[in-house]
TrEMBL record:
Protein keywords: ATP-binding, Cytoplasm, Ligase, Nucleotide-binding, tRNA processing
Molecular function in Gene Ontology: ATP binding; tRNA(Ile)-lysidine synthase activity
UniProt organism field: Natronincola ferrireducens
Protein name as catalogued: tRNA(Ile)-lysidine synthase
Major localisation: cytoplasm
Domain Lysidine-tRNA(Ile) synthetase C-terminal, chain residue ranges per copy: 384-456
Gene: tilS
Domain comment as written in the entry: The N-terminal region contains the highly conserved SGGXDS motif, predicted to be a P-loop motif involved in ATP binding.
Catalysed transformations (reactions): cytidine(34) in tRNA(Ile2) + L-lysine + ATP = lysidine(34) in tRNA(Ile2) + AMP + diphosphate + H(+)
Amino acid sequence: MLEQVIKTIKRHDLIDRGDKIVVAVSGGPDSVCLLHILHSLKEDFQLQLYAAHLNHNFRGIEAQMDAQYVSKLCEELNILSFIKSMDVPKYSKEKGLSPEEAGRILRYEFFQEVVEKVDASKIAVAHNQNDQAETVLMRLLRGTGIQGLTAIHHGRGKIIRPLLDISRREIEDYCLFHRLSPRIDETNLEPIYHRNKIRLELIPYIQQEYNPNIIESLARTAEILKKDNDFIEETVRKAYNAMKILGGEGCLELPIEGINKLHPALQSRIFRLAAEDLVGKKEALEYKHIQNIVELLHKNETGKKILLPKGIIVKISYNKMIFSTEDKEEVINFYYELREDDSIKLNEVQGEIVTKVLMKEEGVTISRDKYVKYFDYDKVQGTLNVRNRREGDRFWPLGLTGSKKLKDFFIDYKIDRSKRQEIPLICDGNEIMWIVGYRISEKYKVTNDTNKILAIEYKSLSKKE
């Protein structure tokens, strides 16, 4: 068994020489076996071991005796132990959590406290092959995908599970051989929780009626699926990183054309990665939420949005799908008067406007740069200014026979609603001469009769940064 654990450690790169490891020790067979085995490997791997035990206060005097047992065992092994008591039943009630979930949350918070106190690099927990099989069955009964069926992983972050390839029977035999006398939690022998029912009723039934090696089979299935899942995840991550566009804090965009080119299996994972990026939590979305996003994608109606857990908002804006955690459009208003041969910074949009007046005889070459435009200066009658849009704005685009609403122009050019307020407008009084970056007005175009030319350039200051 010791050789098998060493093989698992090496195959999954769980432990490095010189690691400081906090071992989660409940006092039961699994965790006691784990602590004893790691103690046996202490010299080979040059390990520094610490034990962490949390009294959940579910079992009264029995729980106190568990803590005493762990303390005594650690003294015998010369391992420093950290023992803490917390009112998990109270926490469970206050937070509206199941006792199991409440215990798990407080347990890992405590383990992290110990990690920081001793500056440890790993947390070792005692999940075994039976736990793996039970988890696969639980998730299969509840309904899940490939990722869910990979169940418990050998290592993730600081968490390592050296006993994951070892069966519960092997663990019990190990404890018996080494006379460790671990504590037995009687509630684990009662079919009162969902996992207990699977362990005590469903698995024995399958072993007897269908497959005596069901535990090994389920654990092997999880391992096979994990390899497949790792490959898919790597492929998805590359596709996601190639297409995502960061839209500022709490916002990112995905091109609808790019998403539509992907297989549906990859699309759903792309959406999960986007949610994870926003809220920093894996599996932030359930299957039904992913389906809601898929429906939104298929409808592809600009302006449509859905609200998801963790404050995530997904909306369609022309050719983009926008994921955000805020649904507020910041109102930006600016107005600056422009003078001849001058420059002025637009702090609201991190831009700069540069003006210059030229005579036609100077031989002006019309620029093809969309941020450099020329106008008939003699036609400017009012105050030359730069501002952003206002209600009721109209514009006569170059080449058309008449004016149209600025709102309709933005829609025609598929300009995101959230971006419209940031687009500078060069104006003659209230008359729009140029929608910066897009079209100039027919009324101010340079003709053969033009004498004085107004050259205007827009520079983005954010690009320089």
